[in-house]
Inverse folding.
C-alpha cells in the first residue's frame, strides 16, 4: 500500500448549517458577547502537535486488508487523514518504549 492510497478523499460541499438571517442575528448576538450559532473553533490539544510542522517524506509499506479496513473506519469516524492517523498511532505506540529507555539510562 502506498501513501497515495491513504489520501483523504474530498468531502462533497454540503449546505452550511445556518441561513443568512441566522448568521446576521448571530452577528448581532456576537457583538453583544452572546454568539449562539457561529463561533470560532478552538483547536483540540491533539490538533496542535508539532509533528505536523515537520517536513514529511513519502513511505511505502504493506498492510493487511483488515488493517486497511480499520484505518478507513478510523479516518471516516474522526475525519482525519489516514497518514495523520498512522503518525499519531506510531507516536502513541513509541511513548512506552521511550519511557523504558529513559529509565534504563538513569
Amino acid at each position: 500500500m502506498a501513501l497515495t492510497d491513504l489520501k483523504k478523499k474530498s468531502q462533497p460541499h454540503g449546505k452550511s448549517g445556518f441561513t443568512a438571517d441566522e448568521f446576521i442575528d448571530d452577528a448581532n448576538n456576537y457583538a453583544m458577547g452572546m454568539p449562539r450559532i457561529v463561533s470560532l473553533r478552538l483547536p483540540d490539544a491533539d490538533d496542535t502537535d508539532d509533528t505536523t510542522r515537520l517536513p514529511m517524506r513519502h513511505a511505502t509499506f504493506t498492510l493487511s486488508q483488515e488493517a486497511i479496513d480499520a484505518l478507513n473506519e478510523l479516518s471516516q469516524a474522526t475525519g482525519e487523514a489516514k497518514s495523520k492517523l498512522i503518525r499519531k498511532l506510531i507516536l502513541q505506540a513509541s511513548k512506552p518504549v521511550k519511557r523504558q529507555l529513559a529509565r534504563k539510562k538513569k
